[in-house]
């Protein structure tokens, strides 16, 4: 049998006698061929202190990639830099992250995530660069325009197709873990305590629900600095807290970190009840940026959802008319909405013109000034369902939808409404020191939105970047105002008739402060010691035992739509090959990760819709399976069969060198 030799050995062994005219050409033909170099893949992930779950997934994936001959390298980046690298610049091989929905979501959320029309856009719009293969676009369009069994069939087929193509590998749906204490505020919902609805539903401890003293926070806000949630908290106007708490005299610190927020104590050492809801987080982004459309800074949108009202709020699966007092269909494709009486935080009235502006602006943040549209990096999927929004009069807006079903139309009503008089000045191309920097980026996309002018139940007060941010109740918000004065609308109906009782006269707090901690453990200890009422960013499993040791804190474990996943950049070879991506997916031992990385506080999944199992076909449900039903793990639980994985790569057309390294395909 002829044994292959390396190119260096071949060159050394070629003697002068071989260099005849014929042999010389043959030698050049053989030796001149590039044997290729080892495939290198970079996995972008947040560091362990900000997301321990993500880094554990990245390490697991990298270890198994290395075992099959890939040179896998982990690149840890801060949350903002990671999102900018992946969502804005598309400069990545693979990344580990969470989907941006905080709660179980409608299947239409996959429209923006995977449709090829968004392949060149920034943000959560198809960050993978997935082209229209195997009919993905048609399935996405079909689920939008159909209903009933037809829509269900389209959604089932879509999930199966995505499972085969693997533009991203679903790993698991984590249980959002939050530490709360109930001596000052109660009614923490066990599902989404830090959602807009959860915060607005809070009551002041010891108060009677529905009375003036009741302080409830009920928003669907999940605090991790990335605000995408669609709820709005209201302020009741009794601003008694001045927010300037003095430091504890003994200068206590947590895990060596000096407490960022100073809290007044009573003579017996208890915190004074100054009406401030105190939250702690490990994510500093909410202290730096309040732009509701900034993809780098927003995740669940909890706090920007408290700053900016939506036309409708989705709370626990129920549609609640919010800024829109109500709506009615005028034909099959058109809805007419009447707005509640509301003001922006600067005193200007909220009008139908603001609503019409918002929908046009989210489609093109340059408002026609740029050579081609500059769409928002967030909410694109939702506004793509709207054909037009027109102000009929000051308080009435007409929205025409683009052949979509009821569920998709409702999602389109959950975008933040923006003040035209503020954002119209941000439509110019982004500039630095007055010099235009990027014609394809507008000031609206890059602004930090300092001193945000919203219309929601809370308003911005002050912030210290990377340390803390303070909000206060909006005394003029419709939740507070209408409930207080007992006003009725022109037709004699109660203006908040469609608003659940738990949201009226809310929020229950006078002020809301969010302070940044250095770790989950420090955040939990702050709650246990009474320096905070709850943690914001979802805790890692390592902090659960700490909660158990804190007598005054309890663990709230909810249900999340924000699944952990590994995303692949299909713009780059070999990640552009779905067969290659399928093999990579089979290297992920999801059951093992749930047991070890998540300590059981998660559910493995094969579908991005696993949190809404009514939409998942039986073939994709995990149930009691030990491995993925679509791309089974290559090996036994906890043990990769590296040789079997290598065989799969060879079958897919990839080559190894004599040292067992997987070779990168030639460009």
What can be said about this structure in brief?
α6 packs antiparallel against α7. By secondary structure, this protein is α+β, with helices and mostly antiparallel strands. The protein folds into 4 domains: 1-31, no CATH class; 40-174 and 561-651, Dipeptide-binding Protein, domain 3, CATH 3.10.105; 178-306 and 456-557, no CATH class; 309-432, Alpha-Beta Complex (Dipeptide-binding Protein, domain 1).
Please characterize this protein's 3D structure.
Helix content is 25%, strand content 19%. With 667 residues, it is of the alpha+beta class. The protein folds into 4 domains: 31 residues, no CATH class; 226 residues, Dipeptide-binding Protein, domain 3 (Roll); 231 residues, no CATH class; 124 residues, Dipeptide-binding Protein, domain 1 (Alpha-Beta Complex). Helix 6 runs antiparallel to helix 7. The N terminus is likely disordered.
Percent helix: 25-40%
How far do the termini sit from each other? 32 Å
Major sheet attributes: 6 strands, mixed
What structural class do helix, strand and pairing data support? Answer: alpha+beta
Q: How many individual domains?
A: 4
Individual helix count: 20
Tell me, briefly, the overall form.
Answer: globular
Share of residues in strands: 15-25%
The average pLDDT score comes to 84
What's the β-strand tally? Answer: 27
Instruction: Trace the largest sheet across and list its strands.
Output: 2-1-3-24-4-25
Poorly predicted runs: 1-19, 210-272, 486-492
Rg computed from alpha carbons, rounded to a whole number of angstroms:
27 Å
């Amino acid at each position: 049998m002829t044994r292959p030799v390396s190119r260096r050995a071949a060159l050394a062994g070629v003697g002068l006698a071989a260099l005849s005219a014929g042999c010389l050409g043959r030698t050049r033909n053989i030796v001149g061929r590039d044997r290729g170099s080892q495939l290198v893949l970079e996995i972008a992930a947040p560091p362990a202190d900000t997301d321990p779950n993500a880094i554990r997934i990245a390490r697991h994936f990298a270890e198994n990639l290395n075992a099959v001959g890939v040179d896998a390298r982990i690149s840890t980046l801060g949350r903002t830099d990671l999102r900018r690298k992946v969502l804005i610049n598309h400069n990545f091989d693979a990344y580990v992250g969470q989907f941006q929905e905080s709660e179980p979501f409608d299947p239409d959320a996959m429209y923006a995530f995977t449709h090829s029309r968004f392949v060149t856009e920034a943000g959560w719009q198809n960050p993978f660069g997935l082209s229209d293969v195997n009919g993905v676009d048609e399935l996405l369009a079909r689920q939008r325009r159909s209903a009933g069994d037809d829509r269900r069939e389209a959604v089932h087929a879509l999930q199966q197709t995505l499972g085969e193509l693997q533009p991203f590998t679903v790993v698991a749906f984590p249980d959002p873990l939050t530490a709360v204490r109930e001596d000052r505020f109660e009614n923490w919902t066990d599902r989404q305590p830090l959602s807009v609805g959860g915060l607005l539903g809070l009551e002041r401890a010891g108060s009677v629900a529905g009375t003036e003293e009741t302080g409830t926070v009920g928003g669907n806000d999940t605090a991790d600095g990335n605000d995408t949630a669609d709820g709005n908290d209201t302020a009741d106007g009794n601003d008694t807290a001045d927010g300037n708490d003095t430091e504890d005299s003994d200068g206590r610190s947590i895990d060596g970190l000096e407490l960022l927020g100073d809290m007044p104590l009573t003579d017996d050492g208890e915190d004074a009840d100054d009406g401030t809801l105190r939250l702690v987080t490990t994510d500093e982004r909410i202290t730096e940026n309040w732009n509701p459309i900034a993809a780098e800074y927003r995740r669940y949108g909890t706090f920007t959802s408290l700053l900016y009202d939506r036309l409708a709020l989705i709370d626990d699966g129920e549609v609640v008319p919010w800024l829109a007092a109500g709506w009615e269909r005028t034909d099959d494709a058109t809805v007419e909405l009447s707005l509640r009486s509301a003001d922006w935080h600067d005193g200007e009235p909220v009008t139908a013109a603001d609503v019409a502006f918002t929908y046009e602006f989210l489609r093109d943040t340059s408002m026609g000034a740029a050579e081609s549209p500059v769409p928002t990096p967030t909410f694109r999927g939702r506004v793509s369902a709207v054909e037009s929004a027109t102000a009929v009069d000051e308080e009435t807006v007409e929205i025409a939808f683009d052949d979509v079903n009821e569920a998709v139309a409702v999602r389109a009503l959950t975008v933040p409404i923006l003040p035209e008089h503020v954002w119209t000045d941000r439509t110019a191309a982004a500039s630095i020191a007055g010099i235009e920097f990027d014609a394809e980026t507008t000031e609206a996309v890059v602004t930090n939105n300092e001193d945000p002018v919203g219309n929601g139940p809370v308003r911005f007060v002050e912030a210290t970047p990377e340390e803390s941010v303070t909000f206060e109740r909006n005394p003029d918000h419709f939740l507070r105002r209408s409930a207080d004065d007992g006003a009725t609308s022109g037709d004699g109906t109660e203006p908040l008739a469609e608003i659940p009782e738990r949201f009226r006269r809310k929020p229950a707090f006078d002020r809301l402060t969010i302070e940044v901690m250095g770790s989950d453990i420090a955040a939990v200890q702050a709650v246990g010691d009474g320096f905070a009422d709850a943690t914001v960013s979802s805790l890692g499993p390592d902090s659960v035992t700490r909660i158990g040791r804190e007598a005054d804190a309890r663990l709230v474990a909810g249900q999340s739509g924000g699944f952990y996943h590994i995303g692949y950049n299909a713009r780059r070879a070999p990640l552009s090959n779905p067969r290659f991506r399928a093999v990579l997916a089979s290297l992920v031992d999801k059951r093992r990760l749930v047991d070890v990385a998540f300590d059981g506080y998660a559910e493995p999944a094969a579908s991005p819709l696993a949190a809404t199992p009514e939409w998942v076909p039986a073939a994709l449900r995990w149930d009691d399976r030990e491995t993925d039903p679509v791309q089974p793990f290559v090996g036994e639980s906890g043990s990769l069969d590296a040789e079997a994985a290598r065989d799969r790569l060879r079958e897919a057309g990839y080559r190894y060198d004599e040292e067992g390294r997987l070779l990168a395909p030639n460009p």
